[in-house]
Amino acid sequence: MAVADASGLPVAAHVESASPHEVKLVEATIESSFVTQTPERLIGDKAYDSDPLDQHLKQNRGIEMIAPHKGNRKKPRTQDGRKLRRYKRRWKVERLFAWLQNFRRIVVRYEYYAENFLGMVQLGCAIILLRYF
After folding, report:
1. Is the separation of the CB atoms in 82 and 64 below 8 Å?
2. Helices 91-100 and 114-132 sit at what angle, rounded to 10 degrees?
3. Which of 96, 121, 125 is nearest to 110 (CA)?
4. Quick one: average pLDDT of 24-38?
5. DSSP 42
6. 9-21 tens-digit pLDDT
7. Which end of the chain has fewer beta carbons closer than 10 Å to its terminal beta carbon, N or C?
8. Residue 48: how many CA atoms within 13 Å on its side-chain side?
9. Strand partners, 13
10. Mind listing the pLDDT tens digit for each residue in 61-116?
11. Count of Cβ atoms closer than 10 Å to residue 4 Cβ
12. Cβ neighbours of residue 116 under 8 Å, at least 6 residues apart?
């Protein structure tokens, strides 16, 4: 998982196995941030449509979660169209993943251990940041 800022530059990266759901990994990803400031808002796809996650982030960290609702949602809607206008800029996060896929060791994952793979992802993020600045 990765968190990008408004320009699409990496802010945090976290590596985990494929079995846990993304909603459970948000907190660990925010804690592994490269910067000291916490973001005001997080924009995610439909997988992040979780009322407990929204409440947890708002109460404990002061972060507003913006994610469109799933089609099969049973509970009443909590997101309105005004907040979801920011979702249009989610392509910048996808651009970060495209930049990371320029590094072959990240795409193929030659590393056996997760710590080594996280190191390669962090190295890729550092190179992206150095190219920007």
Report:
1. no
2. 110
3. 121
4. 89
5. E
6. 999 999 988 888 8
7. C
8. 20
9. 2
10. 999 888 887 878 888 777 777 777 888 888 888 999 999 999 998 888 888 899 99
11. 23
12. none
Q: Which long-range contacts (CB under 8 A, 24 or more apart) does 15-23 make?
A: 15/114, 15/117, 15/118, 15/121, 16/114, 17/114, 21/47, 22/47, 22/48, 23/47, 23/48, 23/50, 23/53
Q: Determine the residue type at 50.
A: S
Alpha helices in 3-84 (DSSP H): 22-31, 51-56, 81-84
Quote the tokens at residue 23: 């909603």
- CB within 8 A of 111, min separation 6: which ones? 105, 117, 120
Alpha-carbon gap, residue 38 to 57, rounded angstroms: 11
The answer to whether residues 55 and 78 touch, using CB atoms and an 8 Å cutoff, is no
Contact assessment for residue 127 and residue 98, using Cβ atoms and an 8 Å cutoff:
no
